Write a sequence for this structure.
């Protein structure tokens, strides 16, 4: 008869970290982003027209700091709530501090960006897959929070830099893109450009420095019978090679075109050719293999 009107849940509790929870240690509560509330909160929520999944806004009214979370269980003592340690740190709460808990409705997340608080996080083989797996323990994200995840007995802290479409989003059953910002303390590797000095020798085919010039068959040999080999002089480089030449760049180079530069040597002209001697074909003298028999007179 009367339309259902959504009435929000709002109450104040004494906040404690998970380490203060009676009984065995609950490490699963400390690793995620959900809290433990008293049974009376569940009874009150069932009487209200609350939208599911249930999410809450936690506010430290003393310093006006807030965050968002989900609920894991309703087994806490009356008047108390138990929070993960990283959540207590974000809210700047001390043990037995007052906290306001309100039910909220958050938009479904489409994008989030995280900044690792240490470069050690990128030592993980696949940090993005590890983060996505650990986010299953969270119900929502708030921009500005520093969450903590545990992997291989190590605790890594990540700051939520950005979330879309709002500053607080629900990450339950959503398709969310995840990106990373440069971690704190990360420095880009500096690239030092190589400076080519003007006096540096550029080695070319016929312009190699004498000290580094390759000499073919310039080594010494050993005999297998143990006798001393004949000492031979190693070929020496002619000192009269002229001035060393530097490589000349091809200023007409065009992209996609290869140019092969070959060095040619001028042919040595014989002294007879310099005088203008003409070439005559078949002008030589032949010899016969058969000797002529002496004629009989």
């Amino acid at each position: 008869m009367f339309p259902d009107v959504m009435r929000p849940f709002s109450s104040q509790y004494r906040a404690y970290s998970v380490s203060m929870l009676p009984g065995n240690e609950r490490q699963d509560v400390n690793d995620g982003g959900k809290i433990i509330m008293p049974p009376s909160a569940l009874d009150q929520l069932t009487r209200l027209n609350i939208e599911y999944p249930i999410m809450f806004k936690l506010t430290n009214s003393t310093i006006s700091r807030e965050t968002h979370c989900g609920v894991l269980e309703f087994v806490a003592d009356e008047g108390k709530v138990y929070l993960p340690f990283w959540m207590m740190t974000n809210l700047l709460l001390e043990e037995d501090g007052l906290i306001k808990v309100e039910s909220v409705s958050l938009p479904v997340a489409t994008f989030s960006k995280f900044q690792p608080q240490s470069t050690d996080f990128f030592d993980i083989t696949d940090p993005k897959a590890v983060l996505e797996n650990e986010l299953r323990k969270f119900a929502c994200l708030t921009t500005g929070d520093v969450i903590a995840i545990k992997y291989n007995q190590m605790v890594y802290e990540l700051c939520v830099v950005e979330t879309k479409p709002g500053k607080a989003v629900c990450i339950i059953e959503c398709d969310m893109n995840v990106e990373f910002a440069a971690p704190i303390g990360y420095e880009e590797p500096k690239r030092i450009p190589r400076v080519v000095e003007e006096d540096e020798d550029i080695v070319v085919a016929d312009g190699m420095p004498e000290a580094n010039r390759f000499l073919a068959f310039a080594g010494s040999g050993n005999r297998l019978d143990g006798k001393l080999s004949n000492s031979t002089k190693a070929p020496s480089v002619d000192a009269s090679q002229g001035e060393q030449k530097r490589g000349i760049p091809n200023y007409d180079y065009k992209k996609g075109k290869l140019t092969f530069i070959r060095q040619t040597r001028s042919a040595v002209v014989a002294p007879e050719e310099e005088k203008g001697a003409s070439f005559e074909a078949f002008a030589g003298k032949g010899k016969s293999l058969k000797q002529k028999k002496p004629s009989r007179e």
